[in-house]
Write a structure and sequence with these properties.
- The complex is a heterodimer of chains A (136) and B (140).
- By secondary structure, chain A is of the alpha/beta class.
- Chain A has one domain: SCP2 sterol-binding domain (Nonspecific Lipid-transfer Protein, Chain A), CATH 3.30.1050.
- Helix content of chain A is 35%, strand content 26%.
- Chain A contains four helices and eight strands.
- A six-stranded mixed β-sheet of chain A has the order 1-4-3-2-5-8.
- Chain A is globular.
- With 140 residues, chain B is α/β, with parallel strands linked by helices.
- Chain B has a single domain, classed as SCP2 sterol-binding domain (Nonspecific Lipid-transfer Protein, Chain A, 2-Layer Sandwich), CATH 3.30.1050.10.
- Chain B contains seven helices and seven strands.
- In chain B, a hairpin with a 2-residue loop joins strand 3 and strand 4.
- The mean pLDDT of chain B is 95.
- The chains are: A alpha/beta (136), B alpha/beta (140).
- Chains A and B meet through helix 1 and helix 2 of A and helix 5 and helix 6 of B.
């Protein structure tokens, strides 16, 4: 069974995020465990690209496709911020405020240019998403 | 004014890459070649796909070829392709290339994490393309 599956119905953003996560796992196989043992639904909405995708953690795999109903987490930002999120160095699973990139992300959250709904209720899911997503 | 796409346009583009401090800084550790594919749109005077190859190395462009054969262009580490009119939008800064990729309007072949790491350099390449005084082939 494939660990990360992108459905044919996924929009281009989903194909891109699927490729990114697969590449990150291929270059750092220790990240495989981040996909396993967790169940949850995440939607990512790139507002300026008018594209929204869903990421379903089933417990044994990650399925990426169209947006999901009733997501546990929702990430809403523009495409440039999504790239910044993928580039940010993490500290304890969160953007590192000691780096300019980390501070930029936190500043965007403060100004609601980056909205993460459900982060207080699902911190572990958010940590896994960040660790799978980042290329740093 | 160079016509896009053409050898003259590419020559001007490469000169501007090599004189850009912003690009040099953003791509100081970049190593790898890139092919752009301007896909055919016969009704817009682009009867065939046009492959352009550029060799980017540590913030400079050390080689470029216009109209390379597909087999040669496909050997590049990265390939970015889109119909001619999409490229026109990119050069005119009407379409952000990252947004375009997320929308499926531009297609990337190659290691995505590397592009993500060098997204600032990629944006600079687009800014430089936009700075070239351009006559578009379908408007000439």
């Amino acid at each position: 069974m494939q660990l990360v599956v992108t459905s044919p119905e996924a929009p281009a953003l989903g194909q891109m995020i699927g490729d990114l996560v697969r590449s990150n796992i291929a270059s750092d196989p220790a990240r495989e465990h981040l996909v396993r043992g967790v169940a949850g639904r995440i939607n990512i909405h790139a507002t300026d690209a008018e594209s929204e995708i869903g990421m379903l953690f089933t417990g044994s795999s990650l399925r990426i496709g169209p947006a999901l109903p009733s997501p546990d987490l929702e990430v809403i930002c523009d495409s440039a911020t999504l790239m910044e999120l993928a580039n940010v160095r993490l500290r304890f699973g969160r953007p590192d405020p000691m780096t300019p990139e980390g501070r930029a992300i936190l500043n965007k959250m403060f100004h609601k240019q980056l909205v993460v709904r459900g982060m207080l209720g699902h911190p572990k899911l958010l940590t896994r998403l960040q660790k799978l997503f980042t290329v740093s | 004014m160079p016509v896009f796409p053409s050898q003259d346009w590419l020559t001007e583009y490469v000169e501007r890459i090599n004189s850009s401090k912003e690009y040099e800084e953003a791509a100081s550790s970049w190593e790898g070649d890139l092919s752009y594919v301007f896909e055919r749109e016969p009704d817009k005077k682009v009867p065939d796909d046009v492959w352009v190859w550029i060799d980017l190395w540590h913030g400079k462009c050390r080689g470029a070829k216009f109209g390379v054969a597909q087999e040669e262009g496909e050997k590049a580490r990265f390939i970015i392709r889109a119909p001619y009119s999409r490229w026109k939008e990119v050069i005119r800064k009407e379409l952000d290339p990252i947004k375009g990729m997320m929308q499926g309007k531009l297609k990337l072949k190659g290691d995505l994490p590397t592009i993500v790491r060098y997204v600032k350099a990629a944006n600079e390449l687009v800014n430089i393309a936009g700075s070239v005084q351009t006559q578009f082939v379908d408007e000439s």
